[in-house]
């Protein structure tokens, strides 16, 4: 029988939206009670965001519109941020930081992203994954004292995790061995695509340690001036140009024992007891640029649609144009709803564990940003595919949509591709104790006068979808009693994860629409309706595919891929008839 999955992100006794949805329940009261952003913190965040925008405008040139030519993140930009005390956004004021909340930090990072996605990625990596992230979870002692001193001195930081063998491997190939004198460890290995590798003063490095319980990943805080640590030449992505990425080589890099964070759970550094604050780390990197991209797309498409006509008919009057613009606005509303929850849930006495939603937010926001750019590209057609420089040369507004297109695609890759993250989310739901619960849950009667009749219909359908997905998950678990066999079903796990991501986004969007009416912040019922209508169409397709996959009624392509990879079949198709090279010898 499948054993329940031990999930280090779960907090016993603390409710979680994800865990409730996976158990077939829609916790409406929980999500509608999320605290509002404190006015004082909101105002302070707005001031810091404006300050950051002014600093970047001065460092990067005139005007806020980004372009590849102005993206390069130089020492001059970092120096300006450091001089103005804008490196440590979340660090306590006593340590020289700004002491911003997660919500205010996100707002500041978005202001940076509107001017330079490269700068936002660099600052987001420092903020969300660097050593400062660990301070709230560390007890008093040498490690906390050492990190506090470095942060108070204004050090810039980064995180070195990914390796040439891939970031999806649970145990790292970089090895840490005890030093001969017993004072610490020696690190040996290679890292790849490391943000701030060439600019950071202090890095968190993951490395494999052989313990009595097998190999474990520990965290090492490494001064970049340490002998044996070398950053290679800059690495360049297809998008997000200017982000300070580089490989790292570690040869007998000595780390004192007081700068080591050990954890017995082999995957605990991804979200365990000691590193619980890391839940928002990926959010700080992905969310600001995703939101900034959508806002820039809306600005560009509005300008374009208002000035263009087709045979004398305004472009805005066409049905498909109106629908695309409305879909973009609805997606932004949903993205903001998820980001608000991810940064405000669990604060001000709101007893809730938001770490699963922070994990899911990466996919939700980056995929909605990609969908928005795709629609905008179609709306602007040739002028969207045209470079900003080319537009400027011929005298039309130089909206950098081609750059946003590449940047948005990069955000889908950064922090893990969506299929992998969805599969992990699906595994969390399928192997959790709730997947084996005794009796199925019935949909609740969630009705609220704050929602329009159509949105009340979406809320009712959402509650029913929670029950149906829970029942499907239980059926899948019953068919796969061997957990190892279930964990090999990546596509099935990914579908479950995608269904849960959409349930999270729909629930938070409807909850925000309800709160907006009650708080007087505006009536956004149409946007919630537009998003949930489209989401339910996507959910219907996913649920049908999940049912067919569970009973083995869809081809998995295994035979086709194996015959091509290990044999000669399909070579003529791949290389063209009459041009295929000699078939390679079959391998086993």
Protein topology:
Elements: H1 17-22, H2 28-32, H3 39-60, H4 68-71, H5 75-83, H6 102-113, H7 117-129, H8 142-152, E1 157-160, E2 175-178, E3 184-195, E4 202-211, E5 214-223, E6 229-231, E7 245-256, E8 260-261, H9 281-307, E9 309-310, E10 313-314, H10 319-344, H11 355-380, H12 382-385, H13 388-393, H14 401-413, H15 418-430, H16 453-479, H17 483-487, H18 490-519, H19 525-550, H20 558-566, H21 571-575
Parallel strand pairs: 1-4
Antiparallel strand pairs: 2-3, 3-7, 4-5, 5-8, 6-7, 9-10
Major beta sheet summary? 4 strands, mixed
Rounded radius of gyration (Å): 25 Å
Helix and strand composition category: alpha+beta
Output the CATH topology of the domain at 157-273.
Butyryl-CoA Dehydrogenase, subunit A, domain 2
| Helicity, as a percent range | 40-55%
Q: What is the general shape?
A: globular
Strand content: 5-15%
Round the mean pLDDT to the nearest integer and report it.
87
Q: What is the count of DSSP helices, taking H or I runs of 4+ residues?
A: 21
Strand order of the largest sheet: 1-4-5-8
> Terminal Cα separation, in Å?
32 Å
- Please mark out the parts with pLDDT under 50 across 5 or more consecutive residues, or reply none: 63-67, 264-276, 438-443
CATH architecture of the domain at 157-273: Beta Barrel
The CATH superfamily of the domain at 157-273 is identified as Butyryl-CoA Dehydrogenase, subunit A, domain 2
Count of strand segments: 10
CATH class categorisation of the domain at 157-273: Mainly Beta
Describe the protein.
The protein has helices at 17-22, 28-32, 39-60, 68-71, 75-83, 102-113, 117-129, 142-152, 281-307, 319-344, 355-380, 382-385, 388-393, 401-413, 418-430, 453-479, 483-487, 490-519, 525-550, 558-566, 571-575; strands at residues 157-160, 175-178, 184-195, 202-211, 214-223, 229-231, 245-256, 260-261, 309-310, 313-314. With 588 residues, the protein is α+β, with helices and mostly antiparallel strands. Among the domains are: 39-138, Orthogonal Bundle (Butyryl-Coa Dehydrogenase, subunit A, domain 1), CATH 1.10.540; 157-273, Butyryl-CoA Dehydrogenase, subunit A, domain 2; 558-588, no CATH class. The strands form 3 sheets. Strands 1-4-5-8 form a 4-stranded mixed beta sheet. A 4-stranded antiparallel beta sheet has the order 2-3-7-6, covered by helices on one side. It has a two-stranded antiparallel ribbon with strand order 9-10.
């Amino acid at each position: 029988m499948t054993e329940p999955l031990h999930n280090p992100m779960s907090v016993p006794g603390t409710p979680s939206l994800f865990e409730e949805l996976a158990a077939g329940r829609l916790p409406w009261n929980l999500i509608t009670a999320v605290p509002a952003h404190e006015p004082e913190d909101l105002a302070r965040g707005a001031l810091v965001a404006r300050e950051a925008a002014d600093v970047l405008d001065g460092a990067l040139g005139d005007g806020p519109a980004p372009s590849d030519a102005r993206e390069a993140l130089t020492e001059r930009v970092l120096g300006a941020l450091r001089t103005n005390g804008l490196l440590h956004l979340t660090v306590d004021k006593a340590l020289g930081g700004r002491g911003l909340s997660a919500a205010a930090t996100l707002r500041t990072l978005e202001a940076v992203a509107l001017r330079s996605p490269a700068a936002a990625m660099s600052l987001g990596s420092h903020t969300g994954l660097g050593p400062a992230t660990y301070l709230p979870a560390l007890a008093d002692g040498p490690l906390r004292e050492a990190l506090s001193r470095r942060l108070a001195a204004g050090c810039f930081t980064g995180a070195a995790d990914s390796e040439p063998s891939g970031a999806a491997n649970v145990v790292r190939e970089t090895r840490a061995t005890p030093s001969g004198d017993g004072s610490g460890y020696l690190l040996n290995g290679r890292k790849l695509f490391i943000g701030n590798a060439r600019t950071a003063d202090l890095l968190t490095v993951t490395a494999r340690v052989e313990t009595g319980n097998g190999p474990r990943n520990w965290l090492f805080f490494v001064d970049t001036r340490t002998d044996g640590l070398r950053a290679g030449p800059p690495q360049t992505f297809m998008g997000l140009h200017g982000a300070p990425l580089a490989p790292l080589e570690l040869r007998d890099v000595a780390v004192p024992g007081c700068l080591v964070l050990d954890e017995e759970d082999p995957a605990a550094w991804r979200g365990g007891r000691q590193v619980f604050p890391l839940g928002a780390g990926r959010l700080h990197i992905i969310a600001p640029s995703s939101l900034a991209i959508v806002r820039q797309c809306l600005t560009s498409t509005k300008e374009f649609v208002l000035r263009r006509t087709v045979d004398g008919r305004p472009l805005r009057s066409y049905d498909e144009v109106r629908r695309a613009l409305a879909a973009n606005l609805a997606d932004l509303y949903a993205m903001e709803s998820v980001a608000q929850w991810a940064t405000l849930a669990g604060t001000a006495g709101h007893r809730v564990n938001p770490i699963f939603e922070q994990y899911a937010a990466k996919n939700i926001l980056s995929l909605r940003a990609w969908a928005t750019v795709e629609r905008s590209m179609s709306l602007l057609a040739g002028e969207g595919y045209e470079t900003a420089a080319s537009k400027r040369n011929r005298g039309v507004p130089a909206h950098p949509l081609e750059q946003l297109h590449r940047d948005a695609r990069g955000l889908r890759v950064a922090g893990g591709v969506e299929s992998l993250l969805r599969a992990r989310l699906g595994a969390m739901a399928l192997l959790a104790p709730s997947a084996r619960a005794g009796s199925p849950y019935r949909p609740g009667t969630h009705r609220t006068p704050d929602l329009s009749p159509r949105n009340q219909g979406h809320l009712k359908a959402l509650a029913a979808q929670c029950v149906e997905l829970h029942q499907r998950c239980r059926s899948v678990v019953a068919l796969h009693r061997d957990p190892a066999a279930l964990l090999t079903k990546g596509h099935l796990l990914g579908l479950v994860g995608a269904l849960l991501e959409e349930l999270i986004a729909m629930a938070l969007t409807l909850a925000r629409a309800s709160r907006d009416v009650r708080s007087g912040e505006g009536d956004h019922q149409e946007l919630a309706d537009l998003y949930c209508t489209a989401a339910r169409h996507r959910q219907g397709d996913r649920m049908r595919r999940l049912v067919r996959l569970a009973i083995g009624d869809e081809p998995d392509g295994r035979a086709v891929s194996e015959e091509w990879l290990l044999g000669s079949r399909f070579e003529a198709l791949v290389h063209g008839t009459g041009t295929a090279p000699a078939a390679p010898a079959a391998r086993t």
